[in-house]
Design goal:
By secondary structure, the protein is an alpha/beta fold. It is 40% helix and 11% strand.
Length: 171
């Protein structure tokens, strides 16, 4: 049997899109200034381990947020304050796309990255805004959709020590 390197094997979902607020960093809707300027920022427990795992697996990690207060530079600054900026190869937000989260927003990202929808996986803490991903990002079987839901569930409800092992099962 031939051993395959990571580069030779096709990764399921080689592009991971992550929401920002309450998925990567704690959001406070009562604060109306860009997060980079907040006195205290908070990284979601366990997300650094998730990002390190995804990065080490060879996946490209992109932030896809509906945040409208912060621009790309400010979001990058907030990520840097939390030590997470090194994991992200791109940031898409309202201020650099002029699009609210929805089908046009995701199509813009896919076109900009020049990737097919089947190569992308959206991970968010909120199903309501990201449900559109089922139609525009994950064309395919119910199983594809269930895998996406499981990843969301893992990010929301699994404790830090289980993140990496849980993601390895589904991605």
């Amino acid at each position: 049997m031939k051993n395959h390197t990571l580069a030779e094997k096709r990764l399921p979902y080689p592009i991971i899109l992550l929401d920002w607020g309450n998925t990567v960093m704690r959001d406070d809707p009562a604060i109306t200034t860009p997060m980079v300027e907040w006195e205290r920022i908070e990284v979601i427990e366990g997300i650094a381990e998730v990002l390190a795992y995804l990065h080490s697996s060879g996946r490209r990690i992109v932030l896809a947020t509906s945040a409208s207060i912060s621009d790309e530079r400010q979001i990058h600054g907030a990520l840097a304050r939390g030590g997470l900026d090194i994991y992200f190869s791109g940031i898409y937000c309202f201020k650099n796309t002029n699009l609210p989260k929805g089908e046009a927003f995701y199509h813009h990202i896919l076109n900009d990255l020049n990737i097919p929808a089947a190569d992308a996986l959206m991970v968010s803490r909120r199903m309501s805004r990201s449900r559109i991903c089922w139609g525009c990002l994950l064309y395919g079987s119910i199983q594809d959709r269930m895998s996406w839901i499981r990843v969301i569930y893992i990010l929301l409800f699994t404790r830090c020590r289980n993140y990496g092992n849980s993601l390895r099962r589904w991605i």
